[in-house]
Design a protein that fits this description.
Blueprint lengths: L3 E6 L4 H8 L5 E7 L3 H11 L5 E3 L2 H7 L4 E4 L6 H10 L3 E4 L7 H12 L5 E3 L7 H11 L6 E9 L6 H5 L6 H4 L7 H11 L3 E8 L4 H6 L7 E7 L4 E7 L6 E8 L2 E5 L2 H8 L3 E5 L10 E4 L6 H4 L7 H13 L10 H19 L5 E2 L6 H4 L11 H4 L16 H10 L4
Length: about 425
């Protein structure tokens, strides 16, 4: 079997995928691209592999590198731009979060994927954590009954790492994102487990706080989305970078009982890999049957050498399997990716409109896309034009230049 020749764009988060290549004999790491020349040279020196080609310009990389597929670990607001170019060039795409930054890009990305044979896979790794994968298996096997309610939580107090993440750049996407933007780590796993589409969202934004001010970030400290699914069930998604404690947690309620992961905020990151069930054997039985266990599979040990509780492994492993011809490989396609992101994008639109519920379109239906074709609203002035929205609903907080100067000095990465 021919190896999949992989190109990787972005060498910070992209390092995780670079490391993965050494673990999968189906992959050949063929090219690496980053506009950050020093970072690129550091990776070249580390890998010491003359067969890998290095590029500091994306268009040159795409035109010249001998690759079948591209990992996009560039800025979270520029994935669609690059994904569309890759797909149009016939390259398979593995896109980091988020898939797009506005509705107009969502239309263009959907159409590019539909008009191509290239595979698009969304790298929403939190879906592949041990607990959501097990919850998906149990739900699809009928062990929970009908889905009625669920919660997804992704809190990451990023203050300690913010200098390295944003390098004191006031306009870094992380400083300009709104509270509901980075939503797919909490929404995604619930949709992945249930296979249900979101149809309506009401958004909330937690207030700007002193932590966000110290970080130079310009949004509410966290976002909340209350999402109605196609079967009428509701899920709650909460996520943010400005809260005091980290927490990852997923919970589902079905007509036959409940199932949830451990909660990072009280059990630490290892606790998240555990599942807790209280399930009836049939609808209406209603007995307490508490069971806790760590789900494992044939890949658990191998996966655990990778980040985010091993989820980084499954996500890209499945992408390579899909390219290698495994039709049922468990990847997240473009429609699912947008279903995971629209609740945040449109949830913030709800916030900006006083909390009104907003319909979530089904992009599988070409007619549903039409009204969004020119909807460029986002927080990047160069992309939004006249549809620019503020990163905080109560007005973009002014941050003194000294905050960014101090962060730039503190940054150890670049
Ligand atoms: N799934 C996860 O758990 C997870 C974790 C961390 C980051 N991420 C995602 O990974 C992506 C990258 O985040 P990051 O933390 O590395 O920070 P980042 O966004 O600051 O870094 C992006 C990197 O891409 C490079 N880059 C930007 N535009 C480029 C272009 N046009 N061509 C070539 N290189 C370009 C930058 O120089 C930088 O090195 C983001 O989308 C983020 O959301 C995901």
């Amino acid at each position: 079997m021919n190896k999949v020749k992989l190109g990787i764009v972005g060498v910070y988060r992209g390092k995780s995928m670079i490391n993965y290549c050494a673990q999968d004999c189906r992959v050949k790491l063929a090219a690496i691209c980053d506009i950050w020349k020093e970072g690129l040279e550091n990776v070249r020196a580390e890998l010491k592999n003359d067969e890998i080609k290095f590029y500091d310009n994306f268009d040159e990389f795409l035109a010249n590198a001998d690759i079948d597929a591209v990992v996009l670990a560039n800025y979270a607001t520029e994935h669609a731009l690059l994904a569309i170019k890759c797909i149009n060039a016939g390259k398979h795409v593995y896109s980091e979060v988020l898939p797009v930054q506005n509705m107009a890009e969502a239309v263009k990305l959907t159409e590019a994927v539909e008009n191509s044979k290239a595979i698009y896979a969304y790298a929403e790794n939190y879906c592949y954590m041990a607990a959501p994968r097990e919850m998906k298996r149990a739900f699809r096997a009928g062990e929970l009954g009908k889905f009625e309610y669920g919660e997804g939580e992704y809190f990451h107090n990023c203050e300690a790492g913010w200098a390295d993440l944003t390098y004191g750049d006031e306009n870094h996407w992380r400083n300009r994102m709104y509270a509901n933007f980075y939503c797919t780590h909490s929404v995604g796993p619930l949709l992945y487990i249930t296979g249900l589409r979101p149809v309506k969202v009401t958004g909330f934004e937690l207030p700007y706080n002193e932590r966000m001010a110290r970080m130079g970030a310009k949004s509410g400290l966290a976002g909340i989305e209350m999402i109605t699914l196609e079967n009428g069930a509701v899920i709650k998604s909460v996520h943010g970078v400005g809260i005091s404690k980290n927490s990852v947690w997923f919970s589902v309620y079905g007509s036959k009982g409940t199932m949830e992961s451990g909660r990072e905020a009280v059990q630490g990151s290892e606790g998240v890999n555990k599942v807790y069930t209280n399930l009836d054997r049939y609808d209406g039985e209603c007995v307490e049957r508490f069971i806790a266990y760590n789900p494992v599979d044939a890949f658990t040990v191998r996966a655990n050498a990778n980040g985010h509780g091993g989820s980084d492994f499954y996500s890209i492993y499945n992408f390579i399997s899909k390219i290698s011809g495994e039709k049922d490989a468990d990847v997240i396609d473009v429609y699912e990716a947008l279903d995971m992101f629209f609740p945040g994008l449109l949830g913030y639109r709800s916030v900006l409109n006083g909390g009104v519920p907003i319909e979530i379109p089904d992009f599988k239906n070409p007619k549903a896309r039409e009204k969004y074709r020119n909807d460029t609203a986002c927080t990047d002035p160069a992309v939004a034009g006249e549809q620019l929205i503020p990163s905080y609903s109560k007005g973009v907080p002014p941050v003194p230049k000294a905050v960014y100067d101090a962060l730039r000095k503190k940054c150890n990465i670049r």
